[in-house]
Design brief:
The protein is an alpha/beta fold and 143 residues long. It contains 3 helices and 7 strands, in the order βαβαββαβββ. Strands 1-7-6-2-5-4-3 form a 7-stranded mixed sheet, covered by helices on one side. Bound molecules: adenosine-5'-triphosphate (ATP) and magnesium ion (MG).
């Protein structure tokens, strides 16, 4: 499934649709991966998803902290963890305690740059890919 998103607002609407469609699983965390080139809009999408889940604090790019946790209120998930794997090497996922997070059904993990850690990353529940088109248009694909 592919969607064309002409503006950041349209991207945010799509993030809202995704937020509404996600439900915790009994066997572990829900993993959403965001692929796409530098500047494709992965962090922007993650910020919109956080907002749709009621996060009011500013969601920064986790590029330097690698992973950032947001507590969710009145949501089906109790935590959103936003990970940027850009600076991780294959095998380094555990440096952010990924396995401990991934066993928790109450956690929603949104991970940018899954290709950096492909071998150690479990299969995503939702794999998204963003690409930049003409003007500021983005194309979002659901794998
Ligand atoms: N339709 C659109 N969808 C998403 N972002 C857009 C759109 N139009 C313009 N932008 C802009 O493109 C930029 C995307 O940057 P963002 O940090 O989200 O990318 P990224 O994929 O996370 O990059 P990185 O790989 O460096 O982490 C933002 O400045 C955003 O405002
Ligand atoms: Mg980013």
């Amino acid at each position: 499934m592919t969607r064309t998103l002409a503006t950041v607002e349209e991207l945010a609407e799509e993030a809202q649709v995704l937020a509404r469609s996600l439900a915790p699983k009994s066997d572990g965390a829900t993993l959403v991966t965001l692929s796409g080139d530098l500047g494709a809009g992965k962090t922007t999408f993650a910020q919109s998803l956080a907002k749709a889940l009621g996060v009011t604090e500013h969601v920064t790019s986790p590029t330097f902290v690698l992973a950032k946790t947001y507590t969710l209120k009145d949501q089906t998930f109790s935590e959103l963890v936003h990970i940027d794997a850009y600076r991780l090497k294959e095998g380094e996922l555990q440096s952010i305690r990924f396995n401990e997070l991934h066993v928790r059904p109450d956690v929603l993990i949104v991970l940018e740059w899954p290709e950096r850690v492909r071998e150690s990353l479990p299969k995503a529940d939702v794999a998204l890919s963003l690409s930049v088109g003409p003007d500021e248009t983005r194309t979002l694909s659901y794998a």
